[in-house]
Amino acid sequence: MKNSILYIFSFMLLLFSKDISSQVLKISINKNKSYQEIKGFGASDAWRCQYVGSNWPQEKKERIAELLFSKEIDKDGQPKGIGLSFWRFYIGAGTKEQGSDSNIKNEWRRAESFINADGNYDWSKQKGQQWFLQEAKSYGVDNFLAFSISAPVQWTLNGKGYGENIKSPKINLKTDKFGDYAKFMVDFLTYFKSEGIDFNYLSPINEPQWQWEKRTQEGTPATNKDILDITKLVDKHINERKLSTKIVLAEAADLRWLYSSYGKSERGNQIDYFFNNKVKVKSLDKTISGHSYFTTWPVESLISVRQDLNQKLKQYSNLEYWQSEFCILEKNDDIGGGGKRDLGMATALYVARVMHADLTLANTSSWQWWTALTNADYKDGLIYLDTGNPEDMYNLNSLKFNGNFHDSKLLWAFGNYSRFVKPRMIRVDANFNREEKLLEQYKNIMCSTYLNPKTEEYVSVVINYSNKDRKVQFNDFYVDRIYVTSNDNNLKLIKSSSTINIKAKSINTIIGHKI
Question: Most CB within 10 Å of its CB: which of 235, 307, 413, 472?
Fold first, then answer.
């Protein structure tokens, strides 16, 4: 009897301890349960595009543009690029013209201004950024967004493009220059419309919660009142000129400032401040934007912050959320932090998980990376620039004119979303046959699904964060094609089958239709 009981106990233990990775994970798609409409995925031209676009050899910069914007497929079924649908153009404040007097040591972080101290415009400025802007247009990018992070230096309180010596949270802008700053931004929109670039969106203030006292780049603090005052002035000029551009707010430096004071009462609770019934701004888009910095680790915070944000968003009918800037800043156990570039899968997976959380927990309708290019030994670019000389990899002077460029796994992982989840697609429900808690899912298999309402085509992005392969099946769903980004593949087209082997540490875009 004892031996029989022992045998049964051992058998049950073996049964329940069986590796779940051998089990088939079944996913059911329910189009009747829908969420947000997608506006697009994008990146910015900030800083690095100015030299590459104006000085680098034509062949190299054309290939860089192809990697970012192309929607074409080569003869082997391989995407030539990641097909961005958003392009962010940075409106400079004139620290480049100041040179060393700007106190910003890194020349690559200074920016030209289209307007000088006499009020005269020179639209040939920001030549390199304009080159990439025109390339984005030629490739058919859907949305263009212009953003400003400081008023032109001649109008700031301290004559600089950053907030040093600005003791209060108020904007670094002379009181009598609010109108000039607003007009300048709308003059920018008007000029580029005449050149064939009709900016869909204007973001007038960026990360107003920081003081921007460090001499590393342009930027200004601002209170919510400052932002609203400028927004109303911009709105007046937009309406007078009959422009279609929408104003988007508020590029919060941390998502928690969107739904709470988070220690800065004059600069927090931005959803309540800008979208209460008292704010009447005709060209204000019903969108609130924030940056996912400092909310992605530990994973518990990645989840809870976005759940809290979603609860606040539900209080406001039809208010969209955009994740409008992100790169790796905070320290974490998975990839260490922002320091040291990473062309491999570790950073790609980390960012893909952040994207998944923003898309499925906070229901973001647009997700935008920070800088498309980087010349730094840092995890802040999709494409990396260097000299090719191991002893002097990041020589800022020589890189102004030429250098090497490298695609990254992050670029292609981003493409698992941007290339296939296109504007006007709808996120729909995707359920698993498992009782795994949300936290455990974020360490293993994650899935989000998007429907093209015109073609009835479905796009599912499946991330395997774990170290083990998993098998996946879609119920009542025919798989047409699969694109995989992994250690060995960059959006590689693989054969479809009813049971899909999801490789460890991989990101997979699965395209098909309901049976």
Answer: 413
Taking every pair of Cα atoms in the chain, the longest distance, rounded to a whole number of angstroms, is 99
Whether omega for the bond prior to residue 298 falls within 30 degrees of 0, making it cis, is yes
Q: What's the CATH code, domain 39-418?
A: 3.20.20.80
Answering whether pTM is above 0.85, one says yes
Q: Which of 320-324, 383-387, 494-498 has the lowest mean pLDDT?
A: 494-498
Which of 302, 309, 388, 392 is CA-nearest to residue 352? Answer: 302
What are the extents of the domains in the chain?
Answer: 24-36+426-514, 39-418
Find out whether 149 and 218 touch, Cβ atoms under 8 Å: yes
Nearest in space to 49 (alpha carbons), one of 135, 147, 139: 135
Return the H-helix or E-strand segment holding 60.
helix 58-69
Q: Tell which CATH classification among 2.40.160.180, 3.40.50.10260, 2.60.40.1180, 2.130.10.10 matches the domain 24-36+426-514.
A: 2.60.40.1180
pLDDT of residue 16: 45
Residue 256 and residue 7: Cα distance in Å, rounded?
55
What is the model's pLDDT at position 468? Answer: 97
Which are the contacts of 144, defined by CB distance < 8 A and separation ≥ 6? Answer: 86, 87, 89, 133, 136, 137, 197, 198, 199, 200, 201
Neighbours of 431 (CB within 10 A): 14
Rounded to whole angstroms, how far apart are CA atoms 360 and 323? 12
The average confidence (pLDDT) of the chain is 95
